[in-house]
Amino acid sequence: MHPVSQAIGMRQLTGTLVTLVIGLAGTPACHAFHDGGVASCNSCHTMHNLQDGQLIDPDNPHGNPDLLTHSTPSDLCLSCHAEAFGAVFGPDPLVPPPEKGAGNFVFLLEDNLNDAPDGAVNPISGDAAGHNLNAPSFGVAADGTHVTSPGGGYPSSQLGCTSCHDPHGNQNFRFLYGARVTSGEGYNFLYPAPLADGIDLLGGIETKNYHSAYRAGMSQWCGNCHHSFLQEHRGSRFEHSTSDLLEWDQVNAYNLYNGADDPFGGDPALAYLAQVPFEDSASSIQSTAGPTATSRIICLSCHRAHATSGPHSGRWDFNIDFLDTDGAVSGSYPIPNPYTTPRQGPLCAKCHGPEDPSEPITDPTR
């Protein structure tokens, strides 16, 4: 090719690539928003406080303090991630998106989560469903009950998506922050981000052989904001272990438990239950095996990171005796029963067996 023609061709190709990059950057569904790539800044930030002639943040007529295109960081995050790219805030608390692991913030909109026998007269509002977000365009606000994080000191007024996730991206699991000073009040994260892998946010749902894989440090990371729950003291308000190695009887119970109608018939190679995860250095997204002597219980064994239709972000409702009664009193979304047994009890049985949780499991076959 003639040098002049080659130069013209290169300019045309470069122009096409620039146009493509800028076009992608202006599309909210761009996959490269969080990788620090060129030309994606303006998808989240604005040079001014106007967009199409309208104030972006009416509460701040002199400009959003973070130059965001939405009123709050969480409003901005949810503009892409509410119903797509993770679907973390569905449109209806009775019809949530398929589960991908962390739960769904839509349950914050519920008027009652209490499925205990007296739940109709003693309602528990969606404020207790999980981590509250300051996202007014989605109808939710900062926690109205707790001034700071339970068991810690993170200011509830500042809690949002970017309290946990780095909006500019990093190499950690789900862009979680490592040890650092965060929040406008100088709150200090002491523990590093956990070692884990997650399923694809663009497709697929959480299943027995496709699930988040927690390998190390998850409970300690939760302890950045809830540090007193890492401390076990008999007689204190919290006695359940949060990061201990599973004891032999618990490993045995988990591997054998296959629902209330088959509590001792499980196959250890297929025992993993995504609704009751554990932490192990050998875990992978496709793992199906149950725990071993090196496995640990973690905060996320019983709770989800975002929110659920049970109080306290419970993976099941802690106020009910049988999973098939979930939602019956409150009218909230019934958390699915992972077993075929209609009268399945709480999933505490996965680690503690079908007997009294305070007693070791006894395998009648031994």
Beta strand %: under 5%
Lateral arrangement of strands in the main beta sheet: 1-2
Unreliable parts: 1-31, 356-366
Total number of strands? 6
Pairing-aware structural class of the strands and helices? little secondary structure
Q: How much helicity do the residues have?
A: 10-25%
Helix count from the secondary structure assignment: 6
- Our measurement of the CA-to-CA distance between the termini, rounded to an integer number of angstroms, reads 81 Å
Shape: globular
Give the rounded overall mean pLDDT: 84
The H/E string reads HEEHHEEEEHHH
The gyration radius over C-alpha positions equals 23 Å
The largest β sheet comes out as: 2 strands, antiparallel
Question: Which terms would index this structure?
Answer:
single chain, 366 residues, little secondary structure, two-stranded antiparallel sheet, 6 helices, 15% helix, globular, disordered N terminus, disordered C terminus
